[in-house]
Amino acid sequence: MSNDTIKTSKWYFSTADAIFDVEGLDIHDQTIYILLCAHADRDGKSFPAYATLAKRGRMSERKAKYCVAKLVEMGLIRKKPRQKDNGGDSSNEYTIVDAYDFLANIERSAHSAHGGMHVMHGGSAHSAPKHNHLSLPFLTDDDKRNQSIEFIYQKYKKEIPRERFDIVVQRVTTRKASNFEALLDTSVQREIANMQVASSHTDVIQPRRNRTTSNRKPKIDIVKDSDQAPAEIPPEKLEQMRKLARKLDKKG
Questions:
Q1: Strand, coil or helix: what is 117?
Q2: pTM value?
């Protein structure tokens, strides 16, 4: 396409295609990242509202918020709240981290975790990393920590659920260790071992308690008249019956 066919009234943007190589992102996460790049200025700052991201990303606003939080947690973007002049909430300010820098930092973390040394060699223009037109800032300590978290999660994601992993991250974060990544790796391994031990125990099913019979009415056996034993005849009555029987015998 020649330059004279592009109208200057339209806005074009570019983004690092390395975003498609970042593990742990689904199509919605990638869409939000690309939309933030589309709304960014040349300083890498982006200010779209959640409603705008949701509409242009063909997703719900709740999903857009979830994707933004995930990108922040991974270290692919940084979010800064803003307020209007009247004190009301405004759209957030997002700083975009280049996807190539993100992957390079994960690779460096992997080498340092295994005691290796990453050597940079000079190369041709074809081997140089691709960058977009944005002037992106260097990674902060929080960015590096978030990338270490994502690296460890990708390493053990088949053995531990994300919710359980996040709990381990919170525990390690409060300890403020100097070597955060190594401590997190060890803590995750310990948590996985505890999960395996817990799953090996079978649950004991408690027997169901019998219902109490203290409130039940006692059973009353009903005896029919025909089944009852004959009543005892008084002696005087018996004597009269005998006399009557003798009189009848004599007459007969």
A1: coil
A2: 0.45
